[in-house]
Amino acid sequence: MTMGARVLIIVPAFNEAGSLPALMNELKKECPGCDVVVIDDGSSDGTREVVTGMVRVVSLPCNLGIGGAVQTGLQIALREGYDLAVQIDGDGQHPPRELYKLLEAQRTSGSDLVVGSRFHVAGEGYKSTLTRRMGIRLFSFILSAICRTRITDPTSGFRVMNHRAIRVLSHRYSEDYPEVEALVVAHRAGLRVSETSVHMSERTAGTSSIGSFKSLVYMLKVPLAIFMDLLRKPEIKFHD
Amino acid sequence: MQEHGQIIVFLFTSAIFALVMALVLTRKITERFAILWMSISIFLLLASSLAFRYLFLIARVFGIPYPPSALFLIVIFGLSLLVIELFSWVSMLNERSRLLAQQVALLRDALDRHVASQQDPARPPA
């Protein structure tokens, strides 16, 4: 773990009552020095109730989508002066035991934002649909060219951000399908983005938020958003 | 345009004008949009009466063989601008409601933590 750094683990959750208790127990076991906040994104299945008393829960009054939920967590991290913020999905796909790899990669590389990749090491097995893999590969190619570093899993929501990335992304975070765009926003703000290899599991409960029609919208929306981000002047810019 | 046609357009635009006024008075639309709709009704009124003869000129300039089509072209263009304006308002309101929802959640969290710290003094305040 990163020595002495205050770490906030942000868990965006929409109807994840089935998987959250086990995840919280594992987080407590694997990351005892970290604070955890669950952002309940307007769930209707009792997500708030199952984790109240275990960790801090912030409930949004309505469903804002993954982007709004993560941004709320980043606003807490910024306001309360955390050194690092970790985003981890509430569906159990991101094993807390892999968290140390992200924190270690951030510490050794000095990157502002480190993404946990399922595909960083060739041949590492994460099963996904063909269309999703093709989409990820396309975005990977675009992002790697823009950020001038190897990004193999730009859609991964398992990531760690330092105080500079927290500042940038708490200010501007895309509403829907935000993961890929966040990397472009970070890069445009002068932040260093890198990647490290992690293992991921299949979701333990609930359903994915991305269906077949949404996949099509995703494939159209994300490249457009990337293109627009490249044209816009960054609102916050760091000069190293 | 024939006289009875002009009367229909006049009545139609007057009705729009009156409806907009009623909606502003009951605060169902803001003055910003009221100005826009009043401008549209005045424009329609002018286009259908005083400026109708210029429609032939406009149609000739744009190469439109049937002059009333020029009026449709102008109206479609104006309505497209209006729809774009509405989209920009919806996007802005969406952004604002997102910010508000986040602030409500953070305030509720601070309040919950404050109440908890009052009930249990050993607990750190929010």
In short:
By secondary structure, chain A is of the alpha/beta class. Chain A contains eight helices and seven strands, in the order βαβαβαβαβαβααβα.
As for the CATH topology of chain A, it is Spore Coat Polysaccharide Biosynthesis Protein SpsA, Chain A
Helix count from the secondary structure assignment of chain A:
8
Structural class of chain A: alpha/beta
Give the terminus-to-terminus CA distance of chain B: 72 Å
State the shape of chain B. Answer: elongated
User: Strand-residue fraction of chain A?
Assistant: 5-15%
Helix content of chain B: over 70%
Average pLDDT rating of chain A: 89
Query: Rg of chain A from C-alpha positions?
Result: 17 Å
Q: How many distinct beta strands of chain A?
A: 7
What is the architecture of chain A at the second tier of CATH? Alpha-Beta Complex
**CA-atom Rg of chain B in angstroms:** 26 Å
Backbone structural class of chain B: mainly alpha
Describe the structure.
The complex is a heterodimer of chains A (240) and B (126). Chain A has eight helices and seven strands; from the N terminus they run βαβαβαβαβαβααβα. Chain A is an alpha/beta fold and 240 residues long. Chain A has helices at 20-30, 47-51, 65-79, 99-109, 130-147, 163-171, 178-188, 212-231; strands spanning 7-13, 35-40, 56-59, 84-87, 113-117, 159-162, 193-197. In chain A, helix 7 runs parallel beside helix 8. Chain A has a single domain, classed as Spore Coat Polysaccharide Biosynthesis Protein SpsA, Chain A (Alpha-Beta Complex), CATH 3.90.550.10. The two termini of chain A are 26 Å apart. Chain B is mostly helical and 126 residues long. In chain B, helix 2 (31-48) runs antiparallel to helix 4 (67-119). Chain B is elongated and about 85 Å long. The mean pLDDT of chain B is 83. Chain A binds chain B through residues 39, 56-62, 64, 68, 71-72, 75-76, 79, 175, and chain B through 94, 98, 101-102, 104-106, 108-109, 113.
